[in-house]
């Protein structure tokens, strides 16, 4: 069985579904879109 630490280390990088760019995740962030795509929605 894989340890939880190893599981999280092997996850692929999170990608924005709008533009496909890799996102830099924050520990407590549940955002799905990147900052650039989110700022476009506010306009």
Number of helices: 2
Main sheet summary = none
Average pLDDT confidence is: 84
Uncertain parts? none
Q: Note the run of SSEs as H and E.
A: HH
Helix content: 25-40%
How many structural domains? 1
Strand content: under 5%
Radius of gyration: 13 Å
Number of strands: 0
* Structural class by secondary-structure content: mainly alpha
Shape: elongated
First-last Cα distance: 47 Å
Structure characteristics:
YhfH family protein, YhfH-like, 43 residues, mainly alpha, elongated
Would you write up a description of this structure?
This is YhfH family protein. InterPro entries: YhfH-like (IPR025432). This protein has 43 residues and is mainly α. 33% of the residues lie in helices and 0% in strands. It has one domain. The radius of gyration is 13 Å and the shape is elongated. The relative contact order is 0.17.
Short description:
This protein is mostly helical and 43 residues long.
């Amino acid at each position: 069985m894989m340890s939880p630490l190893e599981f999280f280390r092997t996850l692929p990088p999170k990608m924005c579904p709008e533009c496909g760019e890799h996102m830099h995740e924050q520990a407590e962030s549940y955002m799905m879109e990147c900052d650039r795509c989110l700022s476009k929605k506010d306009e």
